[in-house]
Amino acid sequence: MAHAETVFKENFLEYASYVIKDRAIPDIIDGLKPVQRRIMHSLFEMDDGKFHKVANVVGHCMKYHPHGDASIGDALVNLANMELFIDRQGNFGNIMTGDSAAAPRYIECRVLPFAKKVLYNPELTEFVDSYDGRNKEPLSFPAKLPIVLIQGAEGIAVGMSTRILPHNLMEVIDAVKAVLNGESFELYPDFITGGFMDVSSYAEGTGKILVRAKLNTKDPKRIVIEELPFGVTTEKMIKSVEDAAKKGKLKIASINDFTTDKVNIEVVLARNTYSDDVVDALYGFTACEQSISVNPLVICEGVPRIMPVSEMIHYHAKFLVEVLRRELEMEKSHLLDRLHARTLERIFVEERIYKRIEQKRTQDEVEKAVISGFKPFAEQLARPVTTEDVDRLLKIPIRRISLFDIEKNHAEIDEINARLGQIDWHLSHIVEYALTYLEEVKKLANPSMWQRKTVIGSFKKTDVREVANRDLMLKYDASSGYLGYGLKSGTNQYLVSPFDRILIIQKEGTYFVTDAPEKLFVGKGMRYCVLAEKDVLEQLVFTIIYQEKSLKYLFIKRCKITQYILNRTYELLPEGNYKLFTLSALDDARITIVFKKGKGYKNLEDRTYFSRFLVKGVRANGVRLTTKEAQTLRIKHEADPKGEEGDEPSLFKDIDPFDDEPQEDPTDA
């Protein structure tokens, strides 16, 4: 059993690690999930400047991705629709309307030059075995920009998830430049769908944002939705408006979709309804307003971690400098090899070293003759002559030797030396070189395509309770014990909306707060129900008179109900053998008690006032009101003429009150 448990734990941890690192969470270095990285690797391998059938790209990618063609095809379409790395041809769907792409055999794609400049460098890319060991795939591309911020990412793994919103390419590049220049920056999301956005709670990508659609309300009888919030399609928008209209939250006559390359949803309003009256309801009850929580989880150095936006920018500014340095050093190494080879060729031909091998009979003698021939010219060489150099020289055709162009060779060597000088300057001014590179990337990406689409503003989330119309009559049917705005018969209480909350006090002295019900059984003999609004409850004082069942003593307590947990039932009476005698919500009143006749009773009637008792917590016990059994109790709305609030009432002189220390109150809903 223990062995099985150990195996299960080990296998589950391996599976969880695989899902986190190899399926759902992007890598901070290139910002790509594994399937996206494999698609880009396939496109780089297939690239010949022409369009490829998406079906062919999917087939090629299946060498690296073990999860089927459907997942590859969907990921490729999504990646292409970001318009960052992939050029499209054909119907790739519409992110505005939610329409899906055509079948992979009908659409084509190819890699963009921007992707090559930002991602592609096989010499700096670390490769690992593919899932079947037959091929090599990149562990991550040496990306020179924070792609994870530019295109965003969403994913759900075992026990964790990520949601990074897309940002504007030009603004991201400017942020990286600001870090390289030692300047501060601000960076906020930008969505291809446009709309409005409140970033007051963005918290560098660790908080949330509020997004809204752009509404055209120039015509008082119709509203046109011209831009969508992030993550909302026209189909979802129309459905949300129709659902709100069916539930009576919006009064519209019709809704029409005229969307083409731009969003155009026309909402025609009902008679006697005007656009200014409906805007808040659209934000409150439809997809016109969305709250989006973000969680910037990425894989960094093999470990998942939360990385705020500013940290990602600083990380990539440092990484960009490192990648550019490595590229320059690698180019310098290649140029030195090329310079050495051209110098060898020149000396080999000019000094006729090839003549030395005419009489040699063995390979060793040939090699020694060539190497010894270069000894007088050692100062002109970048490094000693090797066997590989000799082999390369001996492969030069005789025809090429006879036609060797000395001037051309000198020009090429001068060109190499000039480039080596440039590289040395760039290496000594690497930050300036990085800034120049970023400007080149901006030009290649076409800045006119990347104008900000989402307008940053300041607005609060629409409270549906504030915009909902109170046009539903709440009724209570005492004969059946039901309460709700859906009842056809019963006593009218007051007008409510479906978003109101109601405080209900039942016959036995229990109470609870619930959303305004369409039909809810609350029991016969309901004592009280009121809107559970903060300002109402803070002003409302309940006077509860209850009786001890065996001794028949009466007790009184006054309290407010200001804290509650929704749909949880609470007791107004203390624990013990008590029953609720009466309850009143009057601010002050005169209590008249008539006692039962009995031996030794002198006073058959006595009076006091609500205001003579302190208002305490709802969980506090009451104080004894009588020591004799009451026959009747009358309450009359009348203020205490003495106005002596808190004075000891005559009905319980010389009687110690019960323990009235407040108990723990429930938490606020």
Structural overview:
This protein is an alpha+beta fold and 669 residues long. The protein is built from 17 helices and 33 strands. The strands form ten sheets. Strands 25, 26, 28, 31 and 32 form a five-stranded mixed β-sheet that branches. Strands 14-9-8-17 form a four-stranded mixed β-sheet. The two termini are 46 Å apart.
| Proportion of residues in β-strands | 15-25%
Please report the distance between the alpha carbons of the first and last residues: 46 Å
Query: How large, in whole angstroms, is the Cα Rg?
Result: 41 Å
| Structural class assignment | alpha+beta
Helix fraction, binned, reads 25-40%
- Helical segment count: 17
Unreliable spans are 644-669
The backbone outline, from C-alpha atoms, is elongated
**Quantity of strands, as a count:** 33
Mean pLDDT: 86
Biggest pleated sheet:
5 strands, mixed
What distinguishing features does this structure have?
669 residues; alpha+beta; 5-stranded mixed sheet; 4-stranded mixed sheet; 17 helices
